[in-house]
C-alpha cells in the first residue's frame, strides 16, 4: 500500500498533478529541492528529503538522497520481520512509491556547445541509485521513471492504495531499462573522448558501443524454420521507418517478409515522384516511376513478372482503388504504402492473407539529420563475435556531380534514365547491373560474384521479359574492372552507362565507350551492398 511517496524529478512534466492526486489519497509526500519547491509553491504539504534524513543536500546537489534513511526505506522487504525490525531500530520509514526522472544527460551532450564539465554534472547519481533500490524491491515499491506512466498508475491505484503485482513488475523492468539506456549513453559519450579531453573532437565510433533495442514481437521463425527470431526496434525509431508501420490486415509478418519489406520501403521512399518497388529475396525485381502509382506498378511488374510472384510491393504514396485492383491480380505477400483509400482497402479485404502495411511519412523531413529524414544514420552488420558499424549509405547523386567522360554527350533523357538506374542500383546486391529506360527497370543483375555474369544475367532477364534493351541506360554499382562487362551491356543495346569509375583500367573502359559510340558518365561514388 502506498503510504509514502518520494518525488525527485528533473523533468517536472505532470509531477504536480500526480502529487496532488497522491495527496488527495492521503499519501505522504517526500521530495528533493526543486521538486519540493514546485509542490510546496502549489500548496502541497511536502517534506524535504533533507528534513526527512536530517542531513542537508550538499556538494551542489551531488548528494541529496544518498542516505540510509532513503535507501533503507526503499529496500526494506516488508515480508521479512528482520528487515522491518532493522529499519525500525534506526527510525527509518518505508517509502512505497518512487517518482524519479534523471538529470538530462542525453539532451545535454546532444547540444553542440556541451563541455565535459556540463556532461559530468549531468550524470545523475542519486536518481539511478534510488531507482535501482526501488526497482529491486519491486514487490513493495511502485517505481515511476517516466511521466507517461503517471496516469495509468493513478487510474490503477485501488482502494488499498496499491497497484497489481504485474504492474509493479512492469514498472520495475521499465526502470532497469531506463537505467541501462542512461548508463549506455554515458558510456558511449565518455568512451568517445580522447586523451586530450577535447569533447569537440570525440571519436565517431565510441570505445564501447552500447545500444538499446525494444522488442516489437516474436516471429514464428527466422530466415529458416529451424531458426528462432524476434523483431526489435530502435529506442527512438526514425519517423517513416519500417518499424513504425501499422499492419492493417493480413497474416503475421515473417522474418523474411520484414527484411524484404525494409528493402522495398528504403528503395521506394528514395523517389520523390510516384514510384513502385517490387522485391524478391532482398533485391528489386522491378522498380518504376510513373504519373500515378498505378502506372508505376504496371511498369515495375513488367520488368520481371515471373519473379514478382509472391513479392513485396511498396509504393511511396497513397494507393487508390484502381491501382489496388491491378495489384490484387498478382500474388503479393506484403503491400506497403503511405496510406490507402477506402476503395483500395476494400479490394484487399477479400484477400485476407495479404499483409497490408501503412507507413506514415508526415513527420519525415526533406532535410536535417538522417533520423529526421527517416533514415538510419548507421548501418550495423553482425559478424562472428563482432559488429561492423558504418555510416549508412545515404548518398544521393546530384546531376551536377556527374562527370561525362565519353566523347558522346548524354541527352537530357539519357541523364534522367541514368540517374534513375543509379538510384535503383544502390538497392541491388553487388555486383549490380541495372538496365533501365523511361523510368523503369528492364533487367536487373544482382548478387553475382562477377560483374560480367551480372551483366549477362541482367540482359537475360530483360530478354525473358520480352523487353528491348535498345537505347537503354545501364548502371553498374561499382567500376568495370575490365571492358568485358561493359561490352556485354553495349552488345545488348545499352546507349549510356553510369558507373563510379576508379578502376586501374578506366582508360581502357572509356576508350571502349568511345569506340562503341556510347555515353559514359562517372559518379565518383560506389554503392556496394553486400
Ligand atoms: N545526488 C542525489 O542524491 C540525487 N538524488 C536525486 N537526484 C536527482 O535530482 C533530480 C531532482 O532534483 P530537484 O528536485 O532538486 O529538481 C532528479 O533528476 C534526481 O534523479 C540527485 N542528483 C544527482 O545525483
TrEMBL record:
Biological pathway: Purine metabolism; IMP biosynthesis via de novo pathway; 5-formamido-1-(5-phospho-D-ribosyl)imidazole-4-carboxamide from 5-amino-1-(5-phospho-D-ribosyl)imidazole-4-carboxamide (10-formyl THF route): step 1/1; Purine metabolism; IMP biosynthesis via de novo pathway; IMP from 5-formamido-1-(5-phospho-D-ribosyl)imidazole-4-carboxamide: step 1/1
Top-rank taxon, per record: Bacteria
GO CC entries: cytosol
BP GO annotations: 'de novo' IMP biosynthetic process
Signal peptide: none
EC number: 2.1.2.3, 3.5.4.10
Protein's UniProt keywords contain Hydrolase: yes
GO molecular function: IMP cyclohydrolase activity; phosphoribosylaminoimidazolecarboxamide formyltransferase activity
Gene3D superfamilies xref list: 3.40.140.20, Methylglyoxal synthase-like domain
Protein keywords: Hydrolase, Multifunctional enzyme, Purine biosynthesis, Transferase
Pfam family, one: MGS
Domain MGS-like residue range list: 1-145
Reaction(s) this enzyme catalyzes, per UniProt: IMP + H2O = 5-formamido-1-(5-phospho-D-ribosyl)imidazole-4-carboxamide; (6R)-10-formyltetrahydrofolate + 5-amino-1-(5-phospho-beta-D-ribosyl)imidazole-4-carboxamide = 5-formamido-1-(5-phospho-D-ribosyl)imidazole-4-carboxamide + (6S)-5,6,7,8-tetrahydrofolate
UniProt comment concerning the protein's domains: The IMP cyclohydrolase activity resides in the N-terminal region.
Family to which the UniProt record says this protein belongs: Belongs to the PurH family.
Name under which the protein is recorded: Bifunctional purine biosynthesis protein PurH
Organism of this sequence: Ephemeroptericola cinctiostellae
